[in-house]
Amino acid sequence: MALADYLARDGYRRVPLARNGLGHFHAAGSLDGRPVAVLIDTGAASTLVSLALARELGLALVKLPITGGGAGGTNLEIFHAPNAQLTLGDVVLRPRALMAMDLAHVNQALAMKGESPVEAILGVDVFDTQAAVIDYGSSSLFLKE
Fold it and tell me: Among 78, 38, 34, 80, which Cα is nearest to 57's?
């Protein structure tokens, strides 16, 4: 039995992935109905959306008393976006808490390597809550509903 068939029987949904020139996986997503480019990052603790985009969309944001970073950024303000919905294809993501942060440092690093910017980062919180399976052979991410 093929992996996709086995996972489908167990309630998983397939999300097609694409690889950029650096080997990073990306997926097409949507933030409250607006298309977004999502970077799949198994090293990111939390799922994040672009703070600039969250503000542009008028999302409710709650500033957290902590700062964050990653990919060269440090001491960045972090906001919780409690009512926002991030999806990959038709799969609704269930992060522990969807966060918003300035992603300029991530996109600057990608631009230096000739890659396109991203507007969201899928972190391991979703991998945990939705028992994610990445199939490198078919460039697919499987998420449990």
Answer: 34
For residue 51, give the DSSP letter.
H
Mean pLDDT for each 10-residue chunk of the chain (145 residues)? 89 94 91 96 92 96 78 72 94 94 87 90 96 94 93
Q: Which residue has the tokens 């039995």?
A: 1
How far, in Å, CA of 102 to CA of 56, rounded?
Answer: 13
State which amino acid sits at residue 32: D
Return d(Cα 40, Cα 105) in angstroms, integer.
16
User: Residue 22 has which token pair?
Assistant: 């650096």
25: phi then psi, degrees, rounded to nearest 5: -85, 140
Output the CA angle 36-5-14, nearest 5 degrees. Answer: 5
Q: Answer yes or no: are the C-beta atoms of 84 and 98 closer than 8 Å.
A: yes
Tell me, yes or no, if the pTM score tops 0.85: yes
Query: Do 37 and 119 form a contact (C-beta atoms < 8 A)?
Result: yes
CA 10, CA 92: separation in Å to the nearest integer?
A: 17
